[in-house]
Amino acid sequence: MIGQLPGCEEVARCVRYHRERYDGGGHHGLVGETTPVGARIIAVADALDAMLSPRPYRPALAPEAALAEIESHAGQQFDPRMVRALVEVARTDMGNAPVAGQAAGGMLRWPAVTDN
């Protein structure tokens, strides 16, 4: 769908390849830098969002646990540079990390983690 919009061809490539693994284990077999940089950014952002969101089969992870999980897959699933950038931004200010969550005063906040 995105690829059919004029001027969105590169966005469509990034969306298409964001599930590729950095080590080449993805569906299309792209390895490392051959995966578009936008796709590698989306990959870590999507993984963090998924881990911070509750699922029917598990509660949301705490932000530090999610970051640690992503770090443990740097170089295999994720581009190590993208992981370092994500972790640096997130850990610089855990209260104002640019991830999906509740808007407060114009800043995005970490989602509230509850036991429910």
Count of structural domains: 1
CATH H-level name... which superfamily?
Hypothetical protein af1432
**Portion in helices:** 40-55%
Mean pLDDT: 84
- The strand line-up of the biggest sheet is 1-2
What's the N-to-C terminus distance? 36 Å
Largest sheet report: 2 strands, antiparallel
Number of helices: 4
Q: Just name the CATH architecture.
A: Orthogonal Bundle
Low-confidence stretches: 97-108, 111-116
- Evaluate the radius of gyration: 15 Å
The CATH class is Mainly Alpha
How many beta strands in the DSSP annotation? 2
Structural class: mainly alpha
What is the third-level CATH name, the topology?
Hypothetical protein af1432
Characterization of this structure:
Helix content is 41%, strand content 3%. A two-stranded antiparallel sheet has the order 1-2. Residues 97-108 and 111-116 have low confidence and may be disordered. The relative contact order is 0.14. The chain has four helices and two strands, in the order H-H-H-H-E-E. Helix 1 packs across helix 2 (37-52) and helix 2 crosses helix 3 (63-72). It is globular. It is mainly alpha-helical and 116 residues long. It has a single domain, classed as Hypothetical protein af1432. The N and C termini lie far apart (36 Å).
